[in-house]
Amino acid sequence: MDSDDLGLFGPGSVTWKVHAEPILIVAGLRSLYLQALHPRAMAGVAQNSNYRTDAWGRLVRTATYVATTVYGTTAEAEEAGRRLRRLHARLRATDPVTGEQFRIDDPDLLRWVHVAEVESFLDTARRAGLPLTPAEVDGYYSEQRRAAALVGLDPADVPGTAAEVADYYRAVQPELRMTREAAETAVFLTAPPLPWNLSLPVRLGVTLGPPRWAYLGIAGTALALLPAWARRMYGGLGLPTTALSADLTVRGLRLALAALPQRWLEGPLQQAAMERAARVTGAPPAS
Predict the structure, then answer these.
(1) How far apart are CA 128 and CA 24, in angstroms?
(2) I need a surface site. Which of 2, 34, 149, 253 has the fewest CB within 10 A?
(3) Cα–Cα distance measured from residue 26 to residue 72, given in angstroms and rounded to the nearest whole number
(4) What is the pTM of this model?
(5) Which of 149, 152, 150, 22 is closest to 76 using CA atoms?
(6) Beta-sheet strands, E only, within the chain
(7) Which pLDDT value is given to residue 285?
(8) 247-277 pLDDT, tens per residue?
């Protein structure tokens, strides 16, 4: 029964531990900066979406998908995956360099987006101060192979440990570069048109209207949290001091978010998952 279904992960999973962190708002932006460095992935987005005119709608849809895979029931997660696979199967794009047409659901592209996303979630949470053992780090990557399967990837072909993710990044770097589309996207991500009342459904269940300087600070932190090799592609020096500054900033932001009432920081899907877990385990829901 759905009332007893704890989804793909459930309480006790590293995935629930990581995704309970409100700081993943910053991780989502970091992931987008990183993904933009893949020319075909960037071309696929630019040629098949209206992200410039519907940036916040796209953010809502992406956040809802991630929350569903993490906190939804198994049936909800699998249905979300089926919808995404059907959408991707219809889409094509043209390589900006070779002119070759390619499928959006090409496994190499799906793998890049998956790794950039989950590594961003994990790296941001750890650098913000979430304590994780090396076994938990590998456990998170292994668990996230279930999410990779939802988009159509063979889990066996997806990095499942920290070492495998590092190897994957080394192998894919020759394919990455700063293209015109990547540069335009980075500028857009750093200074997008902000609505008067900005809803942050990734984690916050409330409506906030942050001033532009606050968003610029978050975007700058997300960019600084990128791996040194990625920061260099964006024109930075990749200095250790940049990473240290980003660590201090993201730790401070995590502490600030922790001071807010927890009910503000949990979306409806997470709240429903906590209630199901409490019924199944007999433990009181987190407060």
Answers:
(1) 10
(2) 2
(3) 22
(4) 0.91
(5) 150
(6) 92-94, 101-103, 198-199, 207-208
(7) 59
(8) 999 999 999 999 988 888 888 999 999 999 9
Domain boundaries, the chain: 2-281
Mean pLDDT of 212-236: 89
Type of residue numbered 169: Y
| DSSP H or E run through 196 | none
- DSSP SS3 for 282: coil
Q: What is the pLDDT of residue 284?
A: 65
- Rounded to whole angstroms, the Cα distance separating 111 from 80 reads 18
pLDDT mean over 214-234:
92
Other Cβ atoms closer than 10 A to 283: 11
AA identity, residue 14: V
Residue 197: DSSP 8-state: S
Which has the closest alpha carbon to 177: 226, 232, 222?
232
Q: Which residue has the tokens 């991500």?
A: 189
d(CA 265, CA 277): 18
Characterize the bridge pairing of strands 101-103 and 92-94: antiparallel
Q: d(Cα 278, Cα 280) in Å, to the nearest integer?
A: 6
